[in-house]
Specification:
Number of helices: 8
Low-confidence stretches: 9-52
Strand content: 25-35%
Radius of gyration: 22 Å
Number of strands: 24
Strand order of the largest sheet: 13-11-14-16-24-23-22
Distance between the termini: 39 Å
Structural class: alpha/beta
Mean pLDDT: 90
Helix content: 10-25%
Number of domains: 1
């Protein structure tokens, strides 16, 4: 039973899986220009010990996929810059388990009937998604904008259009609900995570606290807006999950991702690649890391991907405890564990209260000095952390070619993966026994314009034959795949897309976690 309850008496529902197979697209790594990289053809990634035959991800990705999950028309309001008032919504929960119920809250302005088609994102033969259920059409109406509360909080009290009990056979993953207004065809997303409690090889933690921190919906109400400064970095500002995600506000213009947070921008290429190669992966929210310390120990590897900036102290302590119990950590992310936030359960939100770094370590940010800078520091967990000047770009430059992360690459000291470091990165390695700097180099504000920064990618041993890997870049996922709809970033420098060296390094890190 799908367990769908329609809360709109004028709507109908259509449940089922899409049966039409679209053209199969091979996920072949794009080879770098360097001659030696021709030794690493696509076959090296299509097979191997990394894929657990018969796991839930392999079975799920054998089902028919579609590209219909992609938005084709958005209507971002130029007055607000970020919202899509013709159709926008949010979910009652960031993550939900099979058997639990989630509700959907949608507004249309002007009022319009609308549909909600829910897709699981994954590989699916290169298509990137699978239709899970179609809901509606619903009558649709304009719901009230929430008032500005204390600490500039915007907390929507919208009525739900529908609730859905998650079916038992829905595999853990990131799910996008495509909203379509029937009056003018405009679209946006809602996004939620289906989690489980099974043992798995890898926990893929979505960086949804950071998605919400940069969410300016309805206009200039991100964690960065204090009413005066649009890139404020102090306290006394609170943001809530109880509102739609607007269009992403930084680095580039990506209106066709509206409503999906930052999932499609920084994290999906990593998940797409993992599912392509059959890795046994399960997905969680930052909020699950915050709430469920025991759940982190059900995997052998914990993965932080993309832009994972905002952590509660509970998240830090829970991940540190998992490391102590033998879980390996992979920070395929940049600017990770930088801002310390305090979670407010009643408001489904958080505010910035501190920095996981020493005073002056990120000194260029306005108002950062007003926040607490106290231990633990992020580099004491990651191996390195955000440090001035924070932003910039660089090539990944091999420093320890004999290290196990480079096995099978034939990389030599000084070999480069162009543009892979950016747009925020980690440096300032911690004095951890056994820590090794595997890649390092100067950062720049533009090609041939150094900005004084030095990034450091690191590896250090854990207490139980486990380890911590820090890639030191937001852009690592770009080197693994380019799913349908993916928009390549370009600021400071530009990553060049799928790269066989980076793919092999990733494979080496993931396989080492399974030992």
């Amino acid at each position: 039973m799908l367990g769908f309850m329609n809360l709109d008496p004028n709507s109908k529902s259509r449940a089922g899986n899409e049966g039409e197979m679209t053209r199969h697209v091979q996920g072949i790594p794009r080879r770098a220009a360097l001659k030696k990289m021709s030794l690493l053809g696509a076959a090296g990634f299509a097979t191997g010990g990394q894929a657990a035959e018969g796991n839930a991800i392999v079975a799920e990705n054998s089902k028919p996929g579609t590209r219909d999950w992609m938005l084709t028309k958005t209507a971002v309001d130029p007055a607000t810059k970020f919202r899509c008032p013709s159709i926008e919504g949010f979910c009652s929960k960031a993550s939900v388990k099979a058997g639990e119920t989630i509700t959907f809250h949608v507004s249309t302005n002007p009022s319009s009937p609308f549909t909600l088609d829910i897709y699981r994102t994954g590989y699916y033969g290169g298509n990137g998604g699978r239709l899970m259920i179609q809901l509606g059409p619903f009558e649709g109406r304009t719901q009230e904008d929430p008032p500005v509360e204390e600490k500039r909080l915007r907390f929507c009290k919208w009525e739900a259009c529908a609730e859905l009990k998650i079916p038992d056979d829905w595999v853990s993953g990131v799910y996008l609900g495509k909203l379509t207004a029937q009056k003018d065809g405009s679209q946006s997303y809602v996004v939620f995570i289906v989690r489980d409690e099974r043992k798995a090889d890898f926990l893929f933690q979505c960086s949804d606290n950071t998605w919400q921190a940069y969410n300016r919906w309805p206009s200039q109400f991100a964690l960065y807006d204090d009413g005066k400064d649009q890139w404020y970095w102090g306290g006394d500002v609170q943001v809530s999950y109880q509102r739609p995600y607007g269009k992403y506000c930084q680095i580039f213009d990506a209106p066709l991702s509206t409503g999906s947070g930052e999932w499609l921008l920084w994290e999906f290429p990593f998940a797409f690649w993992m599912e392509q190669h059959g890795y046994d992966v399960t997905y969680i929210s930052n909020l699950d890391t915050h709430r469920d310390a025991a759940g982190l120990r059900r995997a052998r590897g914990f993965l932080s991907v993309g832009h994972d900036e905002y952590w509660t102290m509970e998240m830090f302590n829970n991940v540190r405890a998992a490391l102590a119990e033998g879980v390996s950590l992979g920070f395929f992310s940049g600017n990770a564990v930088c801002g310390r936030v305090l979670w407010d359960e009643a408001k489904r939100g958080f505010e910035r209260v501190g920095v996981y770094g020493p005073p002056g370590g990120l000194g260029e940010f306005v108002k950062m000095s007003t926040l607490k800078h106290e231990r633990p520091y992020a580099n004491e967990l990651l191996g390195a952390h955000s440090t001035g000047p924070v932003t910039g770009g660089a090539d990944w430059i091999c420093k320890l070619p004999g290290h196990w992360i480079y096995e099978g690459t034939e990389m030599k000291a000084g070999d480069r993966i162009p543009g892979l470091i950016g747009w925020e990165w980690h440096g300032d390695p911690a004095p951890i026994p056994g820590l090794e700097v595997v890649a390092s180099g100067p950062t720049q504000s533009a090609p041939d314009k150094p900005n004084g920064g030095v990034y450091t990618a690191t590896v250090y041993p854990g207490p139980k034959n486990n380890f911590v890997f820090n890639a030191a870049t937001c852009w690592w996922a770009d080197s693994l795949s380019a799913p349908p709809g993916y928009v390549r970033p370009k600021v400071y420098t530009e990553p060049l897309g799928p790269n066989a060296w980076a793919q092999r390094i990733t494979r080496n890190v993931l396989e080492r976690m399974l030992r």
